[in-house]
Give the backbone structure.
Amino acid sequence: ELPDRSQSAPSVRRLRGRKRTIVSRHFGLVGPPETLSEIADDLELSPERTRALKDEALHELAAELELALTA
């Protein structure tokens, strides 16, 4: 069993719902990395919607990082 690496990514823990699930699974934080198509199938979303949620989540994480760096 692979370790849950989401604990080493505290910003990811702040994401909510599907965004957190998508980012964690796509980048291998809770197991082996998965494609957006695989995640979309499991979540019963279109691949396009899954990509859009991933992009939104990454923008949120980038904004949080920017705030932390300017504080």
Summary: The first helix runs from residue 10 to 14. The chain has a mean pLDDT of 87. The chain is about 65% helix and 0% strand. The two ends are 39 Å apart (CA to CA).
